[in-house]
Structure formats: C-alpha cells, structure tokens
Amino acid sequence: MQYFLLLLELVLVFSIIVRSHPDEGLSLTQFVKKHGYSIETHYIETPDGYILATHLIPHGVSNVHTKRVVLLVHGMGSSAENYVILGPPNALAFYSADRGYDVWLFNARDTFHSRKHRKFKVIMDAKNFWHFSWNEIGIYDLPITIDYALEHSQAQKLLYVGHSQGGTCFYVMLSERPEMNAKISAAALLAPVSFLHNTFSPILGFGARIRQFIKRIMDIFNWYELPAPNTPMVNRKLFTLCKPPDMQDICMEIIYFFAVSPSTNLPMEPLCNINNANLQLRPANHQRGFKKYDYGLNTNLRLYNSTMLPEYNLSNQDGRELFQHLPTVVLKYEVPIDNWNHLDYLLADQAKEVIYDKILEVFKEYERK
What are the Cα distances from residue 34, in Å, to 22, 64, 79, 276? Predict the structure, then answer.
C-alpha cells in the first residue's frame, strides 16, 4: 500500500461539517430511532475486562426478519456511527436491516461507546486502560462479540463487514483464533490494512522511528488517548470548531491530507454524529511483514519468547500483496471511480450502488450454502 491508511480515521474527529441540520447533536440510538428503526444496546464483557457497547438493529422499517446476521466493524478512531451516517436507505446498516438482517454494530474498546473496564478507569488508570492494540481487539473483542451475536440471534454463522482496521482485526482474529472460521460465512473487507512497508508517508515513517521517545512522553504526561480524552465536552468543542463556514474548508483539507487525495464523492449534505472517535497512541510497525507489536527487545523476549517479531499466520484464514497470502478470496474488487479514497467506502454518495450492492450480492451466495 502506498497510502497513509492506518492513521486515517483519526481525522473523523475533525470531519463534522455542520451548518444547521435537524440531526445535529443526535446520539447513535436517537439517529436510528428518528428514521423509524428499532435499536438495542447490548453490553459485552471481554475476557480481559473491557465492557463493549454493541448495538443491534434487529430489522428494517417493514419488520421483515430473516434470521440472517451481519456484523459491521469500524476502523481505527471510528465507531458504529460510520455505518449509519448516510441515513436510510443508503447507509449499510439501514440497507442491510431493510433486507431482513440482524445488523450488529461493533464498538471496539477504543471507542466513545466502549470506555468501561471492570477494574481500570479510563482516565485515572489510563496507562493500564489503554494498554492494547488491534491485536487485543482481534483476539478478544471480535470473538466475544461474534459469539454473543450468534447466541442472541440464534444463528450458527454470521456475515462480516470490516473497514480499514476492521479488516486488520479480522486477520488477527482468524490468525490467532482459527476456530472462528467456522462461525463466519463470508467477509467483505473494505480497504483493509495489513502490510505497511510500502506506505510512503514521512509522518508514519518518522513516528515509527521515534516510537520509544513517543512512549516516554506518553508516560510522563499520562496521555494515551489522541487527540484528547473523548468526552462529550471535548466532542462539543471539536463539533463547534468545524461549524463556521470559514472552517469547513479547513476541516475538509485535513480529511484530504490523511486520505491522500481529495474525494469528489463525499455527499454535500452536512455530516453529523461522527465525532464519537478516538485513537490509542501506539505507533505502528513500519516494516516488512504483518507482525505483532514491537515492545522492545526485553519485552518482546518475555511476551513472544523471541527478540524477533512473530508474524500473523494469514494462511489460517478463509491489498495487492495481501491477496497472495489468503487462500480463499472469492472476489477482489477495485472501485472503478476516480478519486475514490479511504473514507468513500462509508461516506460517498455512490457507496450503496458501487460497494454495498456488490457485498450483499456475494453474501447471498454464501447464505445458500
């Protein structure tokens, strides 16, 4: 990959383009209910003590229910809002619910919704609370959520959609927990992130080289959450920041900076309710291979029994380089639209026609098996 994908979702914090809109300030559940859909919130505790708030849209407005189950998984710095923000009928959550799916909306331990732990406080015990990466999301958060969703929906398998880090964590889960293969009929991975050695980003490269220095600064200031503690007060300030017309172009330029190229596909309507995002401060491994996190020689030796970073075993699983490692890819699809960038999978006007129709078409084939 040639793009600065891994830190992209960070800019969702700044991507609130609001003039005067009736949906301004609505929570996820309020937004869904406003459009006539039912929504439930389920709390799931992971084996290492994080409390995940997972949302379920059990059916569409027609109340048709087929007992099919789909799990929608967000990317880094994002949350379940990503899959509803376009509203019905275009947003994938509504689009799937209208076709009879139980739609489960995942919120990883690094989101606005899932900021509780049975032992640690998110601010007072910040160093312990934020001591994780996508590895833990893949081996703890996803499996426990999948098991819970299947049991609640009384299904044997589910369909999976993951954007960006949602693909990364999927690879981790099936590499480290290969038994989860039997619980997934098919997966659609949108702009998944795995190999980073082709990422031509001065920021990412520089950050990886000084990661130990960054870690020391984090320890000194007890600051492990970027850009700041994700509280309603902080979100309101960020919301206000991009509200003035003069600031909207600046906020869009920030989005385009991280998305590499400007998009001509983002809707002109105001984008609301995507300020529930944050990012754990942990630089990625900027090297060849899809490997586990580099803690330093001593800690690597203790955790991995080796000073060399172990690679995730992608051959356990049912980008261009990534496809060479996956044994059961049924569709490799490149969006045939100019200036299609990392956010367009979720926010573009054409996302339903270009992406979601194709996803549900493939899913139908696996539902028959």
Answer: 10, 19, 19, 19
Query: What's this model's pTM, rounded to 2 decimal places?
Result: 0.77
Closest C-alpha among 142, 141, 150 to residue 69 = 150
d(CA 224, CA 211): 13
DSSP 316-349: G---TTGGGT-TT--------STT--TTHHHH-T
Backbone φ and ψ of 279, nearest 5°: -150, 130
- 272 pLDDT more than 70: no
Q: Nearest CA to 264 among 340, 353, 190, 336?
A: 340
Phi-psi region of 140 (alpha: psi -120 to 50; beta: other; left: phi over 0): alpha
Of the chain, the end-to-end C-alpha distance in Å amounts to 34
| Token pair in block for residue 25 | 């300030």
Residues for the chain: how many in total?
Answer: 369
Instruction: Determine how β-strand 101-105 pairs with β-strand 50-57.
Output: antiparallel
Going by their DSSP bridges, the two strands 40-45 and 101-105 should be labelled as unpaired
Q: With contact defined as beta carbons under 8 Å apart, do 262 and 268 qualify?
A: no
Question: How far, CA to CA in Å, does 58 sit from each of 121, 144, 156, 218?
Answer: 32, 19, 17, 41
Give me the percent of the chain exceeding a pLDDT of 90. 36
Q: What's the angle, vertex CA 122, arms to CA 120 and CA 123, rounded to 5? A: 110
Would you list the DSSP string of 54-75? Answer: EEEE-S-TT-----EEEEEE--
Looking at per-residue pLDDT, the higher value among 80 and 270 belongs to 80
One-letter amino acid of 242: C
Confidence of residue 74 (pLDDT cuts 50, 70, 90): very high
Q: Give the span between the Cα atoms of 80 and 115, in whole angstroms.
A: 14
Q: What's 14's DSSP letter?
A: G
Enter the tokens of residue 300. 């690597």
Q: How far is CA 208 from CA 84, 111, 190, 254, 296, in A?
A: 33, 23, 25, 21, 12
**Planar angle of CA 16, 19, 21, nearest 5 degrees:** 90
